[in-house]
């Protein structure tokens, strides 16, 4: 089942939903099916006959958890769980579970908790027995009626305020780290893209880092950053960010904004696409929409990396490579095999203004600090010493030259 919005191929949407489910550990997917739904029932989502049919199916297969790939109201969730005797999660609830499992940094954990509380706040129609036990008092008040729901809502609001304060401190710390990086200063190259597009595989190939890279959705949640020297000689900080996804609820985008803001600090944005996916174009539009909502500077260079060409047949691969050759901003590669990456890395270097040139630099004997800096950065190709000092042959970029001038 899909929620409101542009119609997508039901089979592909179901495939993505199953991939989401597989991303949760210790979860065995017993089966999946497309359920046509013309007019959702306000109280039960499905009609009486379909509810009975699905109940028998779940019972026969000993299903304990049902995932609905779309929005389910609190009332619908309560009624279906009661009718089917199972736990039910809608798309937002499932993504929250995945985020919770993947969050590794303090910032990520706080963002997940805030998103989960905001989501739960809208679902207080259900009886939250764990909150009721925490209520205390003399026991004169009855069950969790409207009064308890209001108390629960107030408790959630208070917890949200506390989490926001904690997150502000974490974000300030991260801002200090970002300023410290700016002093290096290596340019930042941010990898963005639809989830499961191959960003982490690319990150691993370029950095050798042991970042979790599995064929599952949301394999990366918190941004992973590494300083790396590209084969072209450019020193950069590579940032691997959380994957985007269609129909990502607004409250989740807002909760994870601080994580995605790493993209705003980027000098170059690389949009990694799974070009072998049947809905690659639609996925690219989803990514562009989220980047726009983040307020990415229009002047920030963006490159498109068409990944997974190794999954295409020879004819499709040849056509794709020919198309990429005609557009300087597009690069067809395979992060898995490394095919096409050399040309892409040269384009990144050029976009960063890191095109290197060979020049001669004259230094006096009293400029030992400047000479040491050139050697430390690996820019010196040759050196000749005479009575006036040093004559060095360097290969450097305009950015290197600018840093050197400040010395």
Description:
The chain is α/β, with parallel strands linked by helices. It has 4 domains: 10-98, GTPase HflX, N-terminal domain (Rossmann fold, 3-Layer(aba) Sandwich), CATH 3.40.50.11060; 104-170; 186-351, Rossmann fold; 357-406. The chain is built from 15 helices and 11 strands. The protein is elongated. Its cofactor is Mg(2+). Keywords: Cytoplasm, GTP-binding, Magnesium, Metal-binding, Nucleotide-binding. Monomer. Associates with the 50S ribosomal subunit.
Helical coverage, percent range: 40-55%
Series of H and E elements: HHEHEHHHHEHEEHHEHEHEHEHEEH
Query: Largest sheet at a glance?
Result: 6 strands, mixed
How many discrete domains?
Answer: 4
Would you identify the regions where 5 or more consecutive residues have pLDDT less than 50? 1-5, 126-143
Amino- and carboxy-terminal Cα gap: 62 Å
Q: Which structural category fits the helices and strands? A: alpha/beta
The oligomeric state of the chains shown is single chain
Mean pLDDT: 83
What's the CATH H-level superfamily name of the largest domain?
P-loop containing nucleotide triphosphate hydrolases
- Report the strand count: 11
Strand content: 15-25%
CATH architecture of the largest domain: 3-Layer(aba) Sandwich
What do we call the CATH topology of the largest domain?
Rossmann fold
- The total count of helices amounts to 15
**What CATH first level of the largest domain would be assigned?**
Alpha Beta
Task: Give the overall form.
Answer: elongated
Major beta sheet, strand line-up: 4-5-3-6-7-8
Roughly how many Å is the radius of gyration? 27 Å
């Amino acid at each position: 089942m899909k929620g409101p919005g542009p119609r997508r191929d039901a089979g592909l949407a179901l495939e993505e939903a199953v991939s989401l489910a597989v991303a949760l550990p210790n979860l065995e997917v017993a089966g999946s099916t497309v359920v046509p739904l013309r007019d959702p029932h306000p109280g039960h989502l499905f009609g009486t006959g379909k509810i009975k049919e699905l109940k028998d199916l779940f019972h026969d297969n000993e299903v304990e958890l049902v995932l609905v790939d779309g929005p389910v109201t609190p009332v619908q969730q309560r009624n279906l769980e009661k009718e089917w005797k199972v736990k039910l999660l809608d798309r937002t609830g499932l993504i929250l579970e995945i985020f919770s499992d993947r969050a590794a940094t303090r910032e990520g954990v706080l963002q997940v908790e805030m998103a989960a509380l905001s989501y739960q706040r809208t679902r207080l129609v259900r009886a939250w027995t764990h909150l009721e036990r925490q209520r205390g008092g003399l026991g004169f008040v009855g069950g969790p009626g409207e009064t308890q729901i209001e108390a629960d809502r107030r408790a959630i609001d208070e917890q949200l305020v506390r989490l926001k304060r904690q997150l502000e401190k974490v974000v300030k710390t991260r801002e200090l780290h970002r300023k410290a990086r700016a002093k290096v200063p290596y340019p930042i190259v941010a990898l963005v893209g639809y989830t499961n597009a191959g960003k982490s595989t690319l990150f691993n190939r370029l950095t050798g880092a042991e970042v979790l890279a599995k064929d599952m959705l949301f394999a990366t949640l918190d941004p992973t950053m590494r300083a790396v020297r590209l084969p072209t000689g450019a020193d950069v900080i590579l940032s691997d960010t959380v994957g985007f996804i269609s129909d990502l609820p607004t409250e989740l985008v807002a909760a994870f904004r601080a994580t995605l803001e790493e993209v705003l600090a980027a000098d170059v944005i690389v949009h990694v696409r799974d070009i072998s996916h049947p809905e690659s174009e639609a996925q690219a539009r989803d990514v562009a929409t989220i980047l726009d909502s983040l307020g990415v500077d229009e002047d920030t260079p963006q490159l498109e990396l068409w990944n997974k060409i190794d999954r295409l047949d020879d004819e499709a691969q040849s056509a794709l490579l020919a198309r990429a050759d005609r557009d300087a901003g597009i690069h067809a590669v395979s992060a898995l095999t490394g095919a096409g990456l050399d040309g892409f890395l040269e384009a990144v270097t050029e976009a960063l203004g890191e095109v290197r040139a060979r020049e001669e630099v004259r230094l006096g004997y009293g400029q030992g600090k400047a000479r040491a800096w050139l050697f430390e950065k690996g820019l010196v190709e040759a050196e000749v010493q005479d009575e006036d000092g040093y004559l060095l042959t360097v290969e450097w970029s305009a950015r290197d030259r600018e840093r050197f001038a400040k010395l």
